[in-house]
Amino acid sequence: MPAATQAMTDSVVLITGAGQGIGAAISRRFADLGAKLALVDVNPEHLQQLTSSLSGAEILTLSADVSNKEQVGLLVAQVIEKFGRIDVLVNNAGIIRDNLISNISEQDWDQVLDVNLKGAFLCCQAVFPTLKSQRSGKIVNIVSRAWLGSIGQANYTSSKGGLVSLTRSLALEFARFQINVNAVAPGAIDSPMTQGLTDQARERLIRMQPTGKMGKVEDIAAAVAFLASDEAEFITGQVLHVDGGKSCGLLSL
After folding, report:
1. Is this model's pTM higher than 0.85 or not?
2. Tens-of-pLDDT digits for all 253 residues of the chain?
3. Kind plus residue range of the DSSP H or E element containing 102
4. Which residues are catalytic?
5. Exposed, middle or buried: residue 29 (CB in 10 Å: 0-12, 13-18, 19+)?
6. Could you count the other beta carbons within 10 Å of the beta carbon of residue 185?
7. Which residues contact 83 (CB under 8 A, 6 or more apart)?
8. Of 94, 127, 243, 247, which residue has the fewest beta carbons closer than 10 angstroms?
9. Strand-strand pairing, 137-142 and 88-91
10. In this structure, how many other beta carbons lie within 10 angstroms of the beta carbon of residue 84?
């Protein structure tokens, strides 16, 4: 049995934005590894559909807005009440409101920063006392290759760039408590987010990929599971790009 499988057995994993796409794939991965799951999503219907496909796992589902401090505090308290501990936090909840800077409304700016960055901050802050008392824990933040810069995504890239900086700062703050904080940066992934694009936009994304193809949600789930395992015990403050090489530079097309 692989070490990562042993490491996840009976661990309590809290996943935000768990209901579909990358979040659902991460949830399935940890369920397969024997973890106890606390699955959070703003849409309870997505959670219902997901949990119906997860057989054998011990699951707590919670509908919450991660940008609301009161709701985050309540959901963490509910996880502790049910499972008694938290071993892994995966901050996956995120939204996009793409537009050129001249057309981004203040509301679209605030909503993206609130969910993508503030939400992760609130969740990290809320679980920290528990992880500190345990003197153990793993936090994995889902960022994006776009944190390096992307036209028409000033709000999104700012939120993900801020989340990279939060990851690095918390890695330093939490290290003495044996808490690891890392990030996974997906590239173009075949998920509900990209499936909503036009055929032309999807083809353009694929042309820009060094590999000539999109990644799978399972690719991200595998990276998250590794960073949450005992095999990654001496890795903290890092960004793991899972993007088919796109973060290396632009192709000449």
Report:
1. yes
2. 344 444 588 899 999 999 999 999 999 999 999 999 999 999 999 999 999 988 778 999 999 999 999 999 999 999 999 999 999 999 999 998 988 999 999 999 999 999 999 999 999 999 999 999 999 999 999 999 888 878 888 999 999 999 999 999 999 999 999 999 999 999 888 887 777 777 787 788 788 888 888 889 999 999 999 999 999 999 999 999 998 888 887 665 5
3. none
4. 156
5. buried
6. 24
7. 12, 36, 38, 60
8. 247
9. parallel
10. 10
Answer CATH for 3-188+216-243 from 3.40.50.720, 3.40.190.10, 3.40.190.150, 3.30.365.10 = 3.40.50.720
| β-sheet bridge partners, residue 38 | 14, 60
User: Residues for the chain: how many in total?
Assistant: 253
Q: Are 20 and 48 in contact (CB under 8 A)?
A: no
Query: What does residue 225 show for φ and ψ, rounded to 5 degrees?
Result: -60, -40
- For 172, other C-beta atoms within 10 Å of its C-beta total 11
68's tokens: 């609301």
Gap between the Cα atoms of 193 and 144, Å rounded: 13
Cβ–Cβ under 8 Å, residues 14 and 88? yes
DSSP per residue, 159-224:
HHHHHHHHHHHHHHHHGGGTEEEEEEEE-SEESHHHHTS-HHHHHHHHHT-TTSS-EEHHHHHHHH
Helices (H) and strands (E) in the chain, counts: 10, 9
Query: How many other CB atoms are found less than 10 A from the CB of residue 12?
Result: 22
